[in-house]
Amino acid sequence: MRLVHLGLGNFFRAHQAWYTANASNAAEWGIAAFTGRSTKRSRARVAALRSQDGLYTLITRAADGDRFEVVRSIARIHLGDEHAAWLAYLADPQVQVVTTTITEAGYLRGPDGGLDVDRAEVTTDIEALRADAMAPVSTAPAKLVAGFAARRLAGAGPLTVVPCDNLPGNGAAVAQVISDLAERVDPELLRWIRDNVLYATTMVDRITPEPTPEDFAAVEAATGVRDRAAIVTEPFTEWVISGEFAADRPRWEDAGAIFTTDVAPFENRKLWMLNGAHSLLAYAGSIRGHVTVADAMRDPTCLRWLDEWWVASSRHLSLPAAENAAYRAALIERFANPRMQHRLDQIAWDGSLKLPIRVLPTVRNELAAGALTSGVVRPLAAWVCHVRGSGAKMTDARAEDFLPFAGGPLPGAVRLLLRALDPELAENEAVVAAVIAEARDLGQL
Ligand SMILES: NC(=O)c1ccc[n+]([C@@H]2O[C@H](COP(=O)([O-])OP(=O)(O)OC[C@H]3O[C@@H](n4cnc5c(N)ncnc54)[C@H](O)[C@@H]3O)[C@@H](O)[C@H]2O)c1
Ligand SMILES: O=P(O)(O)OC[C@@H](O)[C@@H](O)[C@H](O)[C@H](O)CO
User: Fold this and answer.
1) Residue-range domains of the chain with CATH
2) Fewer CB under 10 Å: which end of the chain, C or N?
């Protein structure tokens, strides 16, 4: 094992595990994969993958047919609470890379981007690590810090963390939460981390929905194998990576990954145009009764909303306009793939953490340009409606911070809900008025 992954979910199997399997030096890079948590869903995944020795079928689903491929890069499979195994891998000098896909919520960032030290689970983990730097812990930042403590003790040398979640500047973001946590645990350990751990920054892109029983049946029909760990993804895939690596790494570039000095222009385009549009459809499209992205793409009203969103978001990107137009054309084709069942309620999860990343930059940019239109605030208004019970069912890691303000007359609720996303924006009367008007248009009284 030379690579450890935290957050064994759908996306990792369609993306990083696939790139690693297709690297020219793949034979040197077995992955030990851990789920982020130990939920019932995680246990089912672990059981399915273990029963297949880590092998699984990747279904690449184009509009005109499926391609089936067995991915062979996962060598060990663990539940998130198998702490002794986690420490043992991180203490092994052969292990030189840690990748993560733990969702935006998993980094436990507060409003300033640093570690949210007011959260109970963070406090509990800090106390545990103060007593014993390798104690069992539950949060991802604490697991990484405990792993680094084990690595330091073993003298196993430097390594690189490669975050693969939809967070802008994800390398700096994870470095910050690690440093915030380690400084509260042990200054010596913090020093070691600063000297030995490097963080890559990545933009990741490949639409990967939750697989369905029909997907498992498709694998069985085509290959004769009953594969309960199969994953469906789209043909399009992108991985843009920047940053130095502390030691060795898989040659992901041989599988198509792009190494660059600045991920930000690609990251902004992806987060604003793809993920922003996804969130728009998740909230506004589900209010119109749509269940999947492809359903919404058959609705001319949703297409008009997307058009308005893309005009607004793309004009603030630094990449050439012609490239952005091509990206947008490709998005229309990707979203409309009629054979992908990408559920809007899956995309809608954790909106309070996603909207500040995917939607608010465009709202601020358009506000600064004096161009605040209904098309720009629609994702925010639709999220307000979603929180007040319209469209897709709400699931949000921060629900307790804003749900108490969601009821009552719309104007007051809009102001308080916006405050939960961005206090400054909530003070802007033009924004508040535009969101109220658009929420009314979407059916709120
Ligand atoms: N699915 C996609 O199309 C896609 C594409 C690009 C990027 N991503 C990124 O990957 C992330 C995961 O997507 P997925 O489709 O694999 O989801 P998933 O639900 O299949 O897997 C999520 C993984 O994260 C872990 N996790 C969830 N909450 C956590 C928490 N609070 N702390 C620690 N671990 C936690 C889970 O245990 C699981 O291992 C997304 O949130 C996104 O940032 C996904
Ligand atoms: O994965 P999430 O929950 O951050 O966001 C849901 C979708 O917008 C996302 O998964 C996209 O499909 C993906 O980012 C495409 O690369």
Assistant:
1) 3-259 (3.40.50.720), 264-441 (1.10.1040.10)
2) C
